[in-house]
Design brief:
By secondary structure, the protein is mainly alpha-helical. Helices cover about 65% and strands about 5% of the residues.
Length: about 300
C-alpha cells in the first residue's frame, strides 16, 4: 500500500479520533503492511506483546478493516479462533515473564533521580494546568507514591473519587481489579489529587479521558501512554528505559512500606492483594525468613 493511502487513512481517523491516536494507528498499520503483509493478524499473535499493546494493535487493524471495507478481515478479527490464539499467546507471554523476568524495586539513588524529574514536571504542571501533558506529574507521582496499577487503578480513577477524597481528607477509595474497592491514604497525594481535579478545567469523568483523549480502546490506550511517559521519565532521570516500566513503581512502593513497617499484612492491604502469597512475590527473596516470621505472628494474633 502506498504512502498516500496511509495518509488518507490517517485523515479518516482524525475525523473521529485525536490526532495522536490517529498517528499511532497509522504507524501500526504501516508496520503491519511492511512486516506482516501476508497476514496482518500475525502482528497480534506475537507472544512478547503486552496486553495493552495487543489491544491497541487490534483496534488499529479494526479501523483499517472498516475503512477498507474488508469484511473478511473483520470476520477473522472477531472469530472465536483468533480469540483462542490470542489467549494462548497471552498465557505464553505470562509464562515467559515469570521464568525470565524478575521485577526489582528502585534503589534509593534511583528513587531520588525519579523524584527530581517528578519535581520538574510538577513545576510545568503548576505553570500551565491545562497543558496537554499536565496529567503526567500527578498521575505518575501517584503511581510512585501509592503503587497504583497504571491501567486497572489509575486510568479508571474517577473525578468523583478524587473530589470525595479531597473533601474527607483521609481516604481515597478506588475501584481496582475485579471491581474490588481499594482504600489509600490521601495524605501521601493531596497535591496530586488537587492537580488532577484541575485537569482539563475539571471537565472529565474518568482519568483515561485526559490521558488518552478520543481513544476508542479506553484503558488500553491510556495505559500505553502512561507506559511511554514512564520511559520518558527514565531517560530524564538517567535510568535505562528498558528496565523501567509502570509495574516496577508498584514493587518499589511495596518495598518502601515493608521497610518502614515490617508488617506484611499492611503491605497486602495497601496493594489490594487478595492473598499474602501475591504480596510475598513482590518482596526480595533475601527477606524470606523475615516474611515468614511476620506470617507466623499474624496467624497467632488472629
Amino acid at each position: 500500500m502506498t504512502q498516500p493511502s496511509l495518509d488518507d487513512f490517517q485523515a479518516h481517523l482524525a475525523e473521529t479520533l485525536s490526532s495522536s491516536t490517529a498517528m499511532t494507528y497509522t504507524a501500526i498499520i504501516e508496520h503491519a503492511l511492511r512486516d506482516h503483509k501476508d497476514d496482518l493478524l500475525d502482528m497480534l499473535r506475537r507472544p512478547d506483546l503486552s496486553t495493552s499493546s495487543r489491544q491497541t494493535y487490534r483496534a488499529a487493524i479494526r479501523q483499517w478493516a472498516e475503512w477498507r471495507k474488508d469484511k473478511k478481515l473483520l470476520e477473522r478479527l472477531n472469530s472465536p479462533e483468533l480469540r483462542r490464539e490470542l489467549k494462548s499467546a497471552v498465557r505464553e507471554q505470562h509464562t515467559r515473564s515469570k521464568k525470565r523476568y524478575r521485577v526489582e524495586p528502585f534503589s534509593p539513588a534511583e528513587e531520588v533521580a525519579i523524584q527530581m524529574v517528578l519535581d520538574r514536571w510538577r513545576e510545568e504542571c503548576e505553570a500551565d494546568p491545562n497543558a496537554t501533558l499536565a496529567w503526567r506529574w500527578p498521575a505518575i507521582s501517584m503511581i510512585f507514591a501509592l503503587g497504583l496499577r497504571a491501567g486497572a487503578d489509575l486510568a479508571r480513577l474517577t473525578r468523583a473519587d478524587v473530589e470525595a477524597a479531597l473533601e474527607n481528607g483521609v481516604e481515597l477509595s478506588i475501584a481496582t481489579k475485579g471491581d474490588r474497592e481499594r482504600s489509600l491514604p490521601v495524605v501521601l497525594v493531596v497535591d496530586e489529587l488537587r492537580a488532577l481535579k484541575r485537569l482539563n478545567k475539571g471537565k472529565w469523568k474518568v482519568l483515561s479521558e485526559v490521558i488518552s483523549p478520543g481513544a476508542m480502546v479506553g484503558l488500553g490506550a491510556a495505559y500505553e501512554r502512561i507506559r511511554r511517559m514512564v520511559k520518558v521519565l527514565a531517560e530524564e532521570a538517567g535510568l535505562d528505559p528498558a528496565k523501567v516500566h509502570p509495574h516496577r513503581f508498584r514493587h518499589s512502593a511495596a518495598h518502601r512500606l515493608y521497610q518502614a513497617t515490617g508488617d506484611l499484612l499492611k503491605v497486602q492491604r495497601f496493594l489490594g492483594h487478595e492473598s499474602l502469597e501475591t504480596t510475598m512475590s513482590y518482596l526480595k527473596a533475601k527477606r524470606t525468613a523475615e516474611i515468614g516470621e511476620d506470617l507466623l505472628r499474624a496467624r497467632r494474633e488472629r
